[in-house]
Amino acid sequence: MLGLMQDWPLTVDRILDHAKANFPNREVVTRSIEGPITRNTYGNIWTRAKKVTGALRARGIQMGDRVGTLAWNTDRHLEAWYGAMGMGAVLHTLNPRLFPEQIAWIINHAEDKVLFFDTTFTPIVEKIAPLLTSVKLYVAFTDRAHVPESSVPIEAYEDFIHGQSTDAAWGGFDENTAAGLCYTSGTTGDPKGVLYSHRSNVLHAMAANQTDVFGCGASDVVMPIVPMFHANAWAISFVGPMCGAKVVMPGGKLDGPSVFELLETEGVTFTAAVPTVWLGLLAFLRENKLKPTTLKRVVIGGSAVPEAVLRAFEEDYGIEVLHGWGMTEMSPMGTVGKLLPEHAAQDRESQLKTKLKQGRPPFTVEMKIVDDEGVEKPHDGKAFGRLLVRGPSIAKAYFKNAGAKNDKGEALEKCGFFDTGDVATIDPLGIMQITDRAKDVIKSGGEWISSIDIENLAVGADGVANAAVIGILHPKWDERPLLIIEPKPGAQPTRDQLLKFLEGKIAKWWMPDDVVLVEKIPLGATGKINKLALRETFKNYKFPTTQAAE
Ligand code: ADP
Fold it and tell me: Catalytic residue positions?
């Protein structure tokens, strides 16, 4: 027997329709690429998104065609986002921090027909245009006066949408239609495309905005610092218009002073970013003896929250930290570390320990940990295992069947779960802790050492700006940890000071065998430590003890 409820496909155009109907005057404020702060509204964004649809259709773009964007978080990006998705085209966000050749490879693989971009990225566009095989139309997110002189035929976005009507149709297709495409950064092998559907995006946004996850409402002022090209700005581009929050788009300026200025002038209550952004903001606040006055909650994810960052936000500024874990393949939210009633009676230090874990899954995410044979490990907070996930907003295959694990082209384990590539524990309350990427875990004498745990502690030592731990081959133990430190400007922490700082905080056999200082720890395209580059730099490194033994 079927239920007798209405058929209302979960397509993302309904999100912006809802915002227009209920919050037409709620603001979307942008630090524009041209410079000034601009003020827009959901009502006007709806109107202009309709014009984008009209303009795309006029140029022959159809359902299923891929529309690329190489752009920061701005209102225009949001318009193009809904304009393309609303008509059933696939909005493909590109990460401008990748090498130009990689961007060109991804655009060709996705067969993007249109490329929208910020003028900041004109040099990249000029460099890759001769390599592109499918792009027919280059549109700069600006007006005619700001279109740069170029060898590439560039149209101004304002001209592109000018004169289009606002009655272009949206939706009316199956909710499983593709809506968005985002490539993983491909730290191993070629990048792989994750193809979100309308349904997966709508369900994911609703899951991400549950009370114990983001918990945003119409009284919030939400600033997605995490870029729209980093896994859908962690759903904020959907959550904002869904709940009627005012949205503040920071454009391309993500340094401490610029972020702080917007937080204060716009009264931001909720924001989200990777730890590196917060390290920049916190350093700026400390140096200038400043304090955010309106910010209530921050989501920190993409890599583990360093203890020093957690303490600074919660203890110095009274701002709640929500530690999030996820990945492009999960849309991206996997877990968020909101405390449970069971933690309420604990002392503050125990609570902080729990908050440093990656958290628990919202409804729509199922997870388990298994050994190499796929046998489930206990949820005792101690046993490590490969972390597998399942849910309606989690990838089952990559675009064009990249990385397929079965003959249906799916990238799933035999049990139907997706392998995250992370190694984790799950405690009896269901709280997950990442102990490493499967490929970064240090295998010492048959046991696993978590590089992340040591890094998180080390960034709390005096004079440390950033810390990384990698495994170095060892004749007796297979691998031993090497601690790599980027000192704060002017600081010179010594090996002994750093090891002394770690002593007693980690197991003896986890203690790094050596410490080296480097000018800069290399970061990858999404702001995470680039371990591949570090392993390359230190490939001939030998521990002093190993050298002595030889
Ligand atoms: P990529 O893997 O291509 O860098 P993603 O943004 O999809 O891009 O990265 C997902 C991975 O990032 C996760 O599998 C995990 O290893 C890591 N990660 C994300 N959030 C956290 C976190 N809070 N703590 C530790 N690792 C994290």
Answer: 184, 329, 443, 448
